[in-house]
């Protein structure tokens, strides 16, 4: 078990620290990090998801529907519940509650999951879990946050304050339509040549490493301050949500493989999208960056714990 945990966690830590060192050594600026992230989101990750799904037999893909539904619904549900508690119970302003809800409900599954999960659950389950997380993040969480932050901060063109245009725009993103197209191909019984899928893997396999490297640079560039809201958000994101998900999915009687993959995916720390939106709208930037930093540091212990428990 210890060797499995090390195999899953060590690559994440090494690449993350290399990125942090690159930021400390001033090898990359914030603008260059944006270029790296754009390459990952526009090309590498879409190819990674497309190849991972398109290479599955139809029977395997059909069997992964409970996993996809579990990850998607828990991410959307935890985001909505966290926002409601932050806004109406703890009386935080709308912008702060929105970002806190996103931090709790949006684990960095696309980035960290693609590096960690294949070692633990295999490539097929990894591709499905990541695709479900991407759909939740890009089609639900991010559009809703864009609308709420635009209304709260009064920044951006009027169409950003409407939900429908945000969702339509999301479907134009390669990271959304690539897994959808791959799923339709598999469902239709169309199998692409292995040589073509291998060509896509060449760039697609760089996604996790580049994304983690860029995240390390971001953490160095942002100011860090540990406050009570930061600690609460990290505790909920890293411990409470995966633990409750484990209990809920067990009560629903899902298979051990589905529960294990979903819990491990949902134990992943806060996604960088929180910092990106905080910087874009000039709202609670320090809290967002601090949450990202502390969640990533604590995840070395909490993720190892969940790997040991559900493995």
Automatic annotation (TrEMBL):
Show the stretches that span the lipid bilayer.
6-23, 43-61, 67-90, 102-121, 127-150, 171-190, 202-221, 228-252, 258-279, 291-308
Membrane topology, as annotated: Multi-pass membrane protein
Q: What is its main location?
A: membrane
Pfam families, per the entry:
Mem_trans
Instruction: Give any Gene Ontology cellular component.
Output: plasma membrane
Q: Which UniProt keywords apply?
A: Cell membrane, Membrane, Transmembrane, Transmembrane helix, Transport
Its GO biological process terms? Answer: transmembrane transport
Which family does the record assign?
Belongs to the auxin efflux carrier (TC 2.A.69) family.
Q: What is this protein called?
A: Permease
